[in-house]
Structure formats: structure tokens, C-alpha cells
Specification:
195 residues; mainly alpha; Growth Hormone, Chain: A; 0% strand
Length: 195
């Protein structure tokens, strides 16, 4: 009896997509409060704008989970990616408070679509015998960006930034992360999952 290979190509691609998606989220966490404070936003407004992202994501996760019973994961991953990319670009165009509130809500919905779908996909493609082990491994790529988020996020927000961390470079970095995520998503979703 040959040992079963537990880390498949599809699992690794999904993990990489999860890492790239989480990187955009991790960069925004420390950057948003600094950005809003430059517009002299009140602490309560900053807190509300930070929290509405998680709240909108939390509200939509059960809806997405229910819909995943009938709709393929790939469709939600694509929709979540598109919402996430457009929301990331809209940060540069939306001034505080109300326009940015709408952007944060849609960004949270994009996160709900993508993460709920990709976790469901990983649960479906992993062998039943190793499912718990692989799902725990799958959390790592989402946590790794949290290690470096403060350094990268704060340095991209300070006045003494280098050319790499300028406003244009941040847009480029978001676009690059989103493009990589799209490429990986396109490569990873090549299997058929039975309902």
C-alpha cells in the first residue's frame, strides 16, 4: 500500500491564493486608521469604519454558505475577487465618511464571498482521512501576512516613505496581489465537485 500524498497541487494553489488575499487585508488594517486621521476623522468614525468591514463580512457568510449548496465555489471566488479588487482601488477615490463606508461594506462582502468559498473548496478537495490536518494547515497562509502587516502597513502610511511605498506603489501592490490571486484562482479551480 502506497502512502497517500496529502499536499496536492490544488491545495497548495488554494493556500497561495489565500495568502495573497490575506496580504491585501493585512496591509489595510494598520493603514486605514492613519489614512482617516489625516482627514481629521473622529475616533468613533475610525472605529466604525474599521468594524463595518468585519460586520458586513459576518452578515454575508451564512448567506454565502447556504448558496454554496447550489452554486459552485468558483463563482463565489470570482465574485469575491472582483469585489475585493474594485474595493481596494476605490479606497483611493472615496473620501471619508459615507463613500468610504460603502467601500468598506463591499470590501467585507468580497471577503465573505471569497473566504467562505475557498474554505468550502479546501474542505471538499482534501481527503477525508486528513481533512482536519489540512484545514489547519490552510489557516497558516492567512496568518502569515499578520506577522508583517504592521511594518509594511505603517511604513506605507508615513510621510517619510520611499518611492516603493508611495501612493502609486500601494495601488500597484494591491493590483499585483489581486492579479496573483486571480491567476492562482484560475489555476486552482480545475476540478469538478459533486453536489
Amino acid at each position: 500500500m502506497t502512502p497517500q500524498k496529502i499536499l496536492s497541487r490544488d491545495f497548495i494553489l488554494c493556500s497561495f491564493a489565500h495568502f495573497v488575499f490575506s496580504s491585501v487585508f493585512a496591509i489595510l488594517i494598520p493603514t486605514i486608521p492613519i489614512y482617516l486621521s489625516r482627514f481629521e476623522a473622529k475616533e468613533a468614525e475610525i472605529g466604525f469604519l474599521i468594524g463595518i468591514f468585519s460586520f458586513s463580512s459576518l452578515i454575508f457568510r451564512p448567506i454565502v454558505g447556504r448558496a454554496l449548496l447550489n452554486i459552485p465555489e468558483r463563482n463565489f471566488m470570482i465574485a469575491g475577487t472582483l469585489l475585493y479588487v474594485f474595493s481596494s482601488i476605490a479606497y483611493l477615490l472615496a473620501p471619508p465618511f459615507w463613500p468610504l463606508l460603502v467601500v468598506r461594506i463591499f470590501h467585507g462582502i468580497g471577503l465573505a464571498f471569497f473566504t467562505t468559498a475557498i474554505f468550502t473548496l479546501v474542505a471538499n478537495i482534501t481527503p477525508a482521512m486528513h481533512r482536519g490536518q489540512l484545514i489547519s494547515y490552510f489557516f497558516y497562509p492567512g496568518v502569515w501576512p499578520m506577522f508583517w502587516r504592521h511594518t509594511l502597513g505603517y511604513s506605507s502610511s508615513t510621510d517619510l516613505t520611499s518611492l516603493f511605498f508611495s501612493r502609486f506603489a500601494r495601488v500597484y501592490l494591491y493590483a499585483l496581489c489581486s492579479s496573483l490571486q486571480n491567476w492562482v484562482r484560475g489555476r486552482a479551480v480545475r476540478w469538478k465537485i459533486s453536489p
